[in-house]
Amino acid sequence: MRISVSETTSLALDSLKRNAFRTFLTLLGNIIAVSTIIAIIGTIEGLNDYVKEKIIPYGATDFTVSRRPDIVTSWKEFLKLRKRRRFPLSYYRKVRERCLSCEKVGAEDTGIAPVFYKGKFLEEVTIKGETSLAREIGGVRDLADGRPFTEEEALSGAKVCTIGWDIKEGLFPGQDPIGKRIRIRGKTFKIIGVEAKRGKVMGISQDNFVSIPIKAFYSLFPRRVDISILVHTSSSERMQEAMDEVRGILRSLRHLSPSAEDDFSFSTSESMLKIYKNLTSTLFLAMIIISSISLLVGGIVVMNIMLVSVTERIPEIGLRRAVGARRSDIMGQFLLEAMFLTTLGGIVGLLLGGGIIYLINRFSPLPAHMKIWFIFLGLAIAGGAGVVFGIYPASKAANLNPVEALRSEM
CA-CA distance, 338 to 336, in Å (whole number)? Predict the structure, then answer.
C-alpha cells in the first residue's frame, strides 16, 4: 500500500503540531541565519545602488585625473602616493588647449574654512574652487536662484560665489542672499547664486559649501595648489581616446620617461564602483560566513531533534511498516518534517530580516533594499538546509526493521 503525498504531508504537519515547543526551539537557528543573511544582502544591495546613484559623482562619459586617486585602500599606497608632485593650474590650461577628444574640461580643488556674515558664522564649510565648466561635468548642478560665475571670473580671481542651501538657511534665514557679501579667511565674496538643495548622502549634508572661482580659491589657500582636472566626452569610445590624450599630455608636462609609470590617477564611475565593491566584498563574505555558521548550527539542531523524534516514534514507524508503508513513505514523511521546520524558520527569518531592513532605513543613514528575489533566496536556503540535515534521520527511520520496531513497543 503506497501512501499519497497529501497523507504524508498531513502526517508530518501533525507531528510538528504535537511538539509545538520543540518545533519553535528548532526554528531559532534558521530564523537567525535567514534574517541575518537577508539583512546583510539588503544593506549591501542598498549601498551598492546608493553609491552608484548618489555618491559617485561621474557620468558614464566623464572622468577625473588628479595627483592621487579618490580612494586609497592601504597605508602603504598612501605613503607612495603622497610623494607625487602636485597638479598646478597650468595643467588645466594645457589639457583644455591640447585635448582634441575632450568636449568639456574643468578644474576644481576644495578646502575647509568658516564663513562669516554680519556677526554670524558657520564653521567647517567646504570651500570649492572651480572653473565655470566644472559644475557641468559629472552631473550638472542646478541653481535655485541667481547665476553661476563665468570662465573669465574663474580665471581672473573675481570675488564672487554661489552658496549651498545650508549656507542660505544658516546665514540668511528669511532673506534673499543674492547680492549679499560673505567673508572667508578675511576676503569678501559677493553672492551671485544659490545652489538647488541636494539633501544628505549617508547622513552627510551635500549643501554645506561655498563655490568660488578657482583663482580666488588659491588666494585663500596659497599653499595647497593641487587641482583635479574634470573631463566630459561625447561617448564612451571618445572617453577612452580622451583619457589616452590626457595621459600623453600629462606625461609630457611631468617629463616622465617612456618606461616610467604614471604618477597621476584617473577616476571614472566604473573604476570607483569597482573599488567600492572590492572594499565591501570582504565584509560581505565575512558576514555571510558568520550567517552560514548560524545556519549550520541550526541544521545540526534540526538533525538532532529529528533523531530524537525517530527514537520516540519507533513503534509508530513499525506499525506503519506493518500495514504496508514503504521505506520511501517513511523517508518522505521525515524529510517533509525537516523541510517544513526549516522552511517555516525561513519564512519567519524573512519577516524578521525585512523588519531589520525597515529599521535600518528608518533610523540610520544607511540605505537598505528588500527585493523580491530575497524571498526566493531565503526559502531556498531554508528548504535546502532541511533536505541536507533531514536526510540522515529520515534514512534511519526508513531503514528500521518493522518487527524490531513493533517489539520495542512491547
Answer: 5
